[in-house]
Amino acid sequence: MKISFLLGLSFCLASAAQAKDLLKQFPVKPTPAKAGARAAGPSQSRLALKGAFPVVASKQLQGAVAATNLAAAKKLVGKNALFVGVVTQVFAPRSGSIVLLNFAPDYKTALVGAVKAADFKKFPPLQSLQNKKVALRGKVISYKGRPEIELTGAGAIRMVK
After folding, report:
1. pLDDT category, 51, cuts 50, 70, 90?
2. Percentage of residues in the chain with pLDDT exceeding 90?
3. Mind spelling out the 3-state secondary structure of the chain?
4. Which residues pair with 146 in a beta bridge?
5. 149-161 burial, b for 16+ CB within 10 Å, e for fewer?
6. Exposed, middle or buried, 36 (CB in 10 Å: 0-12/13-18/19+)?
7. Candidates 1.20.1640.10, 3.30.450.20, 2.40.50.140, 3.40.190.10; correct CATH number of 44-160?
8. Is 83 in contact with 121 (CB distance < 8 Å)?
9. What backbone phi and psi angles, to 5 degrees, belong to 118?
10. β-pair partners for 136
11. Annotated domain spans of the chain
């Protein structure tokens, strides 16, 4: 304890040259990365297509399911379906592996749209969908017991006018 106190005190009182000498004698090791940690991938906006999402008239969306209708979405797992809703949040985890489109403040209460990193370049910037009404077409899957729609191609997302 006394040694570490004295070493700390000497760092405070030492000149820059003395501090360098002390660092050579007592090198500081970098903190190892956590097991399973991944480097962040490029953001979707860096890989995105230039331009905007295609637009569709709301009257062309007959039979579309509301993205907030969780019960109906669960019945469509394993099938291709069309959903309509307002994107409340565009979420991209640090890993950069996916972008999620949420349709409710609590994402667990509505369908979630998912764009995987391999498909980022097929879409304009997904952040532009925040607070916009969109139509999603794709295969509905169950992820941790909740319905999610896989968005893999350019026609999977359309702005609704």
Report:
1. confident
2. 58
3. CHHHHHHHHHHHHCCHHHHHHHHHHCCCCCCCCCCCCCCCCCCHHHHCCCCCCCEECHHHCCCCEECCCHHHHHHCCCCEEEEEEECCEEECCCCCCEEEEECCCCHHHCCEEEEEHHHHHHCCCHHHHCCCEEEEEEEEEEECCEEEEECCCHHHEEEEC
4. 143
5. bbbbeeebbbbbe
6. exposed
7. 2.40.50.140
8. no
9. -60, -20
10. 83, 157
11. 1-32, 44-160
Tokens linked to 82: 């069309």
- Residue 68 amino acid letter: T
Q: How many residues does the chain have?
A: 161
